[in-house]
Amino acid sequence: MPLPELSEASVALHVEADDWREAIRVAGALLSDTHATDAAYTQRMIDVVEEFGAYVVIAPGLALAHARPGADVHDDALVVATLAAPVRFGHPHNDPVSVVLGLAVTTAESHVGWVAEIANVFNDETAIPRLAAATTLDEVRAVFGASPLRIGDQA
Amino acid sequence: MKIVAVCGSGVGSSAILKLNAERALERLDLEADVVAGDIESLGTTAADAQVILTSPELVERIGKTFADIVVIDNYFDLAELTEKLERAIG
């Protein structure tokens, strides 16, 4: 299953965030603004880190913000937020974080195909620094192997 | 051989860890059943597991186990996964 198309609505670049909670809120706002989730899902993503620590920082500079499926998730969705200045999540090796992926899944099984695609993208160690440096949507899409959006492609 | 990839919620990061562990095992030409799970159900999922793969942030939450605990810093670094898995089971 290919990853969802990244659009202007699902990508935010070089956003100011003072701490990891704000960084997760940036990704959460993209998810709720695109109606993939309710706003409550953002707090659940923060709760995961409060409860279990910074394990969501799965690679140097990259956090995969996510929570379990729930009534506040309406669609499977992946969003990308990059930060103007990196923030610390408290991970012993992978801090600081400059790229936050926000993942919402309706069922535990529904995202398995995406996971393979995400792994394919990020097994290339240049992917995270390229995302962190990206200044346009097309640069982000290129990291994910997607072609540039042409005018008129977006609804 | 059973390997459990563990995260806090059982979706997302543990699924990535499971997939890349499978890719590392392929490199090592080793066969194992890799499953993803959350920390709360670990007592059940890891009861018959030889290896538990997880983040440094979750190690302290793993209770008593007979499995080898292998800590992965970078879930996307196949070299790290391959080396650590080889040391644990190779």
UniProtKB/TrEMBL annotation, chain A:
PROSITE patterns: PTS_EIIA_TYPE_2
PTS EIIA type-2 domain span: 4-147
Record flagged with keyword Signal: no
Signal peptide: none
Location within or outside the cell: Cytoplasm
Gene3D superfamilies for this protein: Mannitol-specific EII, Chain A (3.40.930.10)
Pfam families: PTS_EIIA_2 (PF00359)
Keyword vocabulary terms for this entry: Cytoplasm, Kinase, Phosphoprotein, Phosphotransferase system, Transferase, Transport
Known role: The phosphoenolpyruvate-dependent sugar phosphotransferase system (sugar PTS), a major carbohydrate active transport system, catalyzes the phosphorylation of incoming sugar substrates concomitantly with their translocation across the cell membrane. The enzyme II UlaABC PTS system is involved in ascorbate transport.
The protein's name: Ascorbate-specific PTS system EIIA component
UniProtKB/TrEMBL annotation, chain B:
Record keywords, A-Z: Transferase
Superkingdom of origin: Bacteria
PROSITE patterns cross-referenced by the UniProt entry: PTS_EIIB_TYPE_2 (PS51099)
Coiled-coil ranges (or none): none
InterPro entries documented for this protein: PTS_EIIB-like_sf, PTS_EIIB_2, PTS_EIIB_2/3
Record carries keyword Ligase: no
Domain PTS EIIB type-2: 1-90
Protein's UniProt keywords contain Transferase: yes
Protein name: PTS system IIB component, L-Asc family
